[in-house]
Amino acid sequence: LDVSGAAVIIGITGYTTGRVILYAEESVVQLFAMRMLGRPTMDDLGENEAVDAVEEAANIIAGRAVSKINNVLDGKELRLTPPGTISGAEVHVVSPRMTTFCISMQLPIGTVRMNVGFAEGE
Fold it and tell me: Torsions phi, psi of 69, nearest 5?
C-alpha cells in the first residue's frame, strides 16, 4: 500500500489479527479535522489537533466495524489497538500474508481511503 499524506493505523487483535489504515492527502486531513472540530479556518487548528481528530474518527469507524463483526462471530472477540499516525510522501506500507481490501470515499473536501486487512489462514 502506497500512502502520500497522513495515515492512521489501527491494529486488530483477538480471534484473528489485522489492521485498518485510514489515509488521505495532508490538505484533506487538515480540512477534515477543521470541519470535525468546528474550526472556521485551518489556522485555528492547534499543532496536533488535526492528527488527533483524524485518529479519533478512524477509531470510531474501526470500533463500529469491529463491534458489528463481534456481534456476528459470537464468542470470537476482536479488539483494537490504539491508533498511530504516519505521514510523508510515497510511504510504502507492507502487509505480508494479509488479505486486504480498499474503500475509497469521495468527499467534498477530497478523497479519503480506508484499507482493511486480515491475516491469511485465520
Answer: -65, -45
Longest CA–CA separation in the chain, Å: 48
pLDDT in tens, 51-99: 999 999 999 999 999 999 899 988 788 999 999 999 888 888 887 888 9
Is the pLDDT at 50 greater than 80? The verdict is yes
Q: What are phi and psi of 88, to 5 degrees?
A: 155, -175
The pLDDT of residue 76 is: 80
**Cα-based distances in Å from 3 to 6, 36, 85, 87:** 7, 22, 12, 8
Could you give the domains of the chain? 2-119 (3.40.1550.10)
Partner residues linked to 111 by β-bridges: 106
pTM over 0.85: yes
CB 26 within 8 A of CB 5: yes
Report residue 62 CA to chain centroid gap. Answer: 7
Task: Give me the amino acid identity at 39.
Answer: R
Single-letter amino acid code for the residue at 32: F
